[in-house]
């Protein structure tokens, strides 16, 4: 009996110890897992804060929609966090929502507006069009917030070298101006020397016939559709810049402002930006979030998409943002 009692006590003690260990393990194991998880979560939050403070634009995944986050507005009243609407600060215009300024392309009260990465409203939104845009209802275009249009006058074939006109140019210029949309023009160039550049400029001037413009006359300089077999594809950056300058100087001599259009990468690698700095600069670069690209020099116009949707234009169209030049 005594042995049986001792045996019973032994097994009871053993079971108690096992039970205590099981209970302790059930509490300790989740704690051991949760503490590092909490630390990792805190670290992630800290890392995110550093990302937003050190980089102006947070990294965006491919699945994200275009960003519409709030940028900090300098010198506005913090008590306005519940306010939604237009705010002017330091001479710049912002649209306040959810305690911050909207950035990127925004549709407000049926009109498109563009705000840079700091929330500052751009000077204007616009389109560039050619015969491929087909028929355009300029009144509907204007009502959607489009303030300017740059119309192609023509171009030069990248293989043949022949100059051609754009059959819809005249109608587009008339229709845009009648609707109150500001106008400029461009010419697609494949000139291989300065003499040809002057010929191209003269072709533009013959189309304009002294017509008043609100924006410059741009020379479009880019790779051909058959690169590198296009007649101007193998020019050096210096030669290409001299050719663009010759076009612009001829345009300026006729009393118009002149500018150069090209892709951001092409500007940086196939042109000499310092040689073109006295002209209006129009760059093309399509960013996923539609926020301005990095470029070491100021640019007047930025073409941010080739597939924009604008009421009054039948198909996807090139869309552009006009920026105000920095105050001297």
Please name the defining characteristics of this protein.
3 domains; 8-stranded mixed β-barrel; 328 residues; 33% helix; alpha/beta; 24% strand; disordered N terminus; TIM Barrel; left handed beta-beta-3-solenoid; 3-stranded antiparallel β-sheet
The CATH topology of the largest domain is TIM Barrel
Overall pLDDT, averaged?
Answer: 81
What overall geometry do the principal axes of the alpha carbons give?
globular
- Gyration radius (Cα, Å) is 31 Å
Number of helices: 6
Structural class: alpha/beta
Q: In percent, how helical is the residue content?
A: 25-40%
> In what range is the share of β-strand residues?
15-25%
Order of helices and strands: HEEEEEEHEEHEHEHEHEEE
Biggest sheet: strand arrangement: 6-7-9-10-11-12-13-14
Tell me briefly what this model is.
The protein has 328 residues and is of the alpha/beta class. Helices cover 33% and strands 24% of the residues.
């Amino acid at each position: 009996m005594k042995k049986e009692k001792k045996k019973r006590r032994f097994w009871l003690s053993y079971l108690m110890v096992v039970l205590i260990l099981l209970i302790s393990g059930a509490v300790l194991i989740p704690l051991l897992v949760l503490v590092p998880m909490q630390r990792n979560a805190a670290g992630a939050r800290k890392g995110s804060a550093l990302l937003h403070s050190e980089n102006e634009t947070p990294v965006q995944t491919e699945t994200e929609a275009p960003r519409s986050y709030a940028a900090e507005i300098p010198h506005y009243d913090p008590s306005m966090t519940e306010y939604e609407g237009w705010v002017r600060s330091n001479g710049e215009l912002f649209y306040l929502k959810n305690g911050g300024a909207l950035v990127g392309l925004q549709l407000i009260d049926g009109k498109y507006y563009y705000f840079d990465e700091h929330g500052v409203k751009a000077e204007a939104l616009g389109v560039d069009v050619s015969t491929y845009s087909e028929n355009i209802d300029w009144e509907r275009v204007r009502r959607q917030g489009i303030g300017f249009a740059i119309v192609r006058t023509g171009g030069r074939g990248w293989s043949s070298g022949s100059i051609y006109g754009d059959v819809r140019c005249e109608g587009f210029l008339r229709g845009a101006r009648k609707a109150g949309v500001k106008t400029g023009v461009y010419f697609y160039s494949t000139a291989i020397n300065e003499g040809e550049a002057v010929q191209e400029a003269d072709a533009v001037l013959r189309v304009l016939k002294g017509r008043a413009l609100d924006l410059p006359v741009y020379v479009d300089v880019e790779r051909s559709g058959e690169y590198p077999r296009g007649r101007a594809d193998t020019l050096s950056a210096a030669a290409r810049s001299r050719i663009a300058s010759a076009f612009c100087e001829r345009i300026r001599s006729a009393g118009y402002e002149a500018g150069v259009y090209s892709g951001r990468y092409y500007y940086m690698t196939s042109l000499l930006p310092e040689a073109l700095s006295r002209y209006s600069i129009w760059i093309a670069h399509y960013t996923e979030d539609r926020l301005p690209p990095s470029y070491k020099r100021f640019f007047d116009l930025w073409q941010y998409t080739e597939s924009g949707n604008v009421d009054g234009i039948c198909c996807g169209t090139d869309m552009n943002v006009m920026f105000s030049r920095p105050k001297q």
